[in-house]
User: What shape does this take?
Amino acid sequence: MRKRRDQGGGHESSHGIDLAPMLDFVINLLIFFIITAVFVKESGLTVNRPTSFEQENKEDSKSIQIQILDNGEIWVDNRAVDVRAVRANVERMSAVNPDSGVLIIAQEKAPTGTLVQVVDEVHLGGIYNITFSTTQ
Amino acid sequence: MQSRRHAPSNEDHGIDLAPMLDFCINLLIFFIITTSFIKETGVTVFKPEAVTAEHKESGNLLIAIRENGDIHMDRQHVELRDVRTRMERLHIERPEDSVVIIADKGSQAGAVAKVMDEVRLAGIKDVSIAADPGP
Assistant: This one.
């Protein structure tokens, strides 16, 4: 034992396992994970999609309907309204029917930006039960 | 020298690396656990803004829809009909993850609806539309 140590490094004075290579390896792994780390956290709005069953019955439900046209116009109650007026309309209609949901009917080519704005306004109006459907 | 050998704590003449090693391994475990499961989309889209957007803790599966209707997920361009099979596979791997659809401001609502339907057909019920929380 003594002899081998003398032949080998000679500078080694400890008799334990040499931790340095393991440490190198661990630090490399650590650097790899730090570099590849992604801290993306998305925030979003949750909306429902109607099932086919609900789609058949939507006519007789008391839900508030908001339509979004291809050109971004918003129609509530057969009137074209501004995005900022959606909240007031929703608040008024939910006062009449307190537990009604909102049905957003968007045309195929309606911009998503408008859709999200409308969903946001409806949330501000106090309703989180939103169903989103599209028409041709 | 011979007498110092008997005292176990004084054998090394270098710095004691054990605490540093513990610390590094803890950091390593932290990074392994907290990261690496988010499926990035690999494209930049202009998200709409919404004041009431909620933080999605488990929203790890991201699907981007660009203005021209291209669908991107996991750093690849995918067709609409492939979304379902990919989502099914990812859903089996990590069942508790939810989907966030990152749709461009100018993308069409119809495209978003189609992607949402595909994701729901894949068995994932928790789908939301990404929005930047307002200032």
